[in-house]
Design brief:
By secondary structure, this protein is α/β, with parallel strands linked by helices. Helix content is about 35%, strand content about 20%. The protein has three domains: about 170 residues, FAD/NAD(P)-binding domain (3-Layer(bba) Sandwich); about 140 residues, Polyamine Oxidase, Chain A, domain 2 (Alpha-Beta Complex); about 80 residues. The strands form five sheets. The protein has a seven-stranded mixed beta sheet with strand order 8-7-17-18-19-16-20, with helices on both faces. A hairpin with a 2-residue loop joins strand 7 and strand 8. Helix 10 crosses helix 14. The chain is globular and about 70 Å long. About 45% of the residues are buried. The model has no long low-confidence stretch (mean pLDDT about 95). It binds flavin-adenine dinucleotide. The site of flavin-adenine dinucleotide has 39 residues, from helix 1 and helix 15.
């Protein structure tokens, strides 16, 4: 990161980076490139954390993150370009509805459900824009959950069956995007711009960036952190494989891991930080089912496929699909599940039961006689002890201030990165990367010098 050589007379602190996901590896890489002695400690036997490119089906499948959200001005785009990684842009707005082999375009469905969507939009404006709602005496935006906001609308008998199932479908979509049940998601997360941004898939999988970040780093895999002890004399990290000592530590664990108290901080984190940990939304799930077929039975160009839910409870249970055939060069479909039902499936359903839900959904969409897949993978990010959920989201009542508080260093010994610490781009890979850049600069300024440049970051 240096604009010129570091001042050699300064002894740089020994840094222990806890976790080897995107934020941990990028922090470690930037600090190492600036001359800091760095060691990374990771519980899993693999790198990447919530980035996980699996190749057991013979093609690269991303079981965690798969899209670069918002290609423009995204450091991930620059990084792919600098490594020569091809990116495949996903056509915007091309959602295809299927039921019993019959197909409808998104505009047709929007037109059909216009009454429900208009009323939903109006309900949202009433809650968020006080001037729109003369009955709001507080004159301040309401912060309730998306489910609470839409409950009166969906229970209105005048709404009609079709409009109602489109609203359920939309709620399920919001649950899939946020990786959480609608009753845990704040209406602040209802951001129409999110649906309009251009997304892209890095060909070969996200792992290629992880491999680049990890080059030359000293990493202990299969080593879970149990206790983080910090004080005047530095940090001591108690792990499943012994004690590691350093001057400072960078904590990159997912918020769910910190909240679960599976890692003990000594002394314990102060009440303000603990409040932030408890308030930020985390603990919902977005899971994937990956199916590899011999031949495609869905049309070319239908990259996002969906169906209306049979019931409110089954919304977001494998009725959103993405076709990755063009990105991986084989007929590959990925189905998503989220919301309340997904939490139950993650924790208590067998692989066989989930497989049956998956094929039931595909048969309802296309035909009862679809082929048996040649390969099948599924994820359980909620039961996974090293993630305990998929990613953070805005819960009712939490604010940007909570994320700022989560990111605040403790006693000049502990620094915090990770997607949940980024105020704007939480829940994403680039949010994790930008949080790493933020803390690496903070550490560099504090212990080395102000003489840094962003020009030699890996993605520049
Ligand atoms: C299913 C799914 C789909 C997603 N889709 C997208 C997408 O398309 N686009 C996008 O931008 N983002 C997506 N995301 C979010 C994205 O993957 C994350 O925001 C990002 O990867 C988080 O990086 P991180 O470094 O903050 O955390 P992590 O990657 O979770 O890194 C933290 C590391 O800490 C380790 N760890 C945990 N506990 C311990 C312990 N006790 N001791 C030692 N190590 C420990 C973990 O194993 C992990 O490696 C998705 C996530 C999921 C789960």
């Amino acid at each position: 990161m240096h604009a010129s050589q570091p001042r050699l007379e300064r002894v740089l602190p020994k840094v222990l980076v806890l976790g080897a996901g995107m934020s941990g590896l990028v922090t470690a890489r930037i600090l190492k490139d600036s001359g800091f002695p760095v060691r990374v400690i990771e519980a899993r036997r693999r790198l990447g954390g919530r980035i996980w490119t699996d190749t057991s089906l013979g093609v690269p499948c991303d079981l965690g993150a798969s899209w670069i959200h918002g290609v423009r001005k995204n450091p991930l785009t620059l990084w792919c370009q600098s490594l020569g990684i091809e990116m495949r842009k996903i056509p915007r707005g091309s959602v295809h509805f299927w039921r019993s082999g019959e197909h409808h375009h998104l505009p047709y469905m929007l037109l059909k459900g216009r009454k429900g969507f208009l009323r939903a939009a109006l309900t949202f404006l009433h809650a968020r824009v006080p001037s729109f709602n003369p009955k709001n005496p507080a004159k301040s935006p309401t912060d309730i959950s998306i489910e609470e906001m839409l409950a009166p609308l969906v229970s209105d008998p005048k709404l009609g069956k079709e409009n109602r199932s489109l609203i359920w479908w939309f709620l399920g979509l919001v649950e899939a995007i946020n990786g959480a049940p609608a009753h845990e998601i704040s209406i602040r997360e209802w951001d129409i711009m999110e649906y309009l941004q251009a997304n892209a898939v890095p060909i070969g999988g996200f792992e290629r960036l992880i491999e680049d970040a990890a080059k030359g780093l000293d990493i202990e895999l299969d080593t879970s952190v149990k206790r983080v002890i910090y004080g005047d004399r530095g940090v001591k990290i108690i792990t499943s494989k012994g004690i590691f000592s350093g001057d400072i530590a960078v904590v990159t664990f997912p918020l769910g891991v910190i909240r679960s108290k599976a890692v003990v901080f000594e002394p314990s984190l102060d009440p303000a930080k603990q409040r932030a940990i408890d308030r930020i939304g985390y603990g919902g799930v977005l899971n994937k089912a990956v199916l590899l077929f011999k031949r495609r039975f869905w049309p070319h160009g239908h990259e996002r496929l969906t169906s209306l839910p049979e019931s409110p409870q089954s919304r977001a249970v494998f009725n959103y699909w993405a076709d990755f055939s063009r990105s991986v060069g084989a007929p590959l479909l990925v189905g998503f599940t989220s919301g309340k039902a997904a939490k139950g499936l993650d924790r208590s359903a067998s692989d066989r039961e989930i497989y049956e839900r998956v094929t039931f959904s595909l048969k309802n969409m296309f035909s009862q006689s679809i082929q048996t897949p040649e390969g099948f993978l599924l994820t359980r990010w909620l039961s996974d002890p090293w993630s305990r959920g998929s990613y953070s989201y805005g819960a009712p009542g939490n604010s940007e201030k909570d994320r700022e508080e989560l990111a605040r260093p403790v006693a000049n010994r502990l620094y915090f990165t990770g997607e949940a610490t980024h105020q704007e781009h939480y829940g994403t890979v680039h949010g994790a990367l930008l949080s790493a850049q933020r803390e690496a600069i903070r550490i560099h300024r504090r212990y080395c010098c102000n003489n840094y440049t962003l020009r030699n970051l890996p993605w520049m």
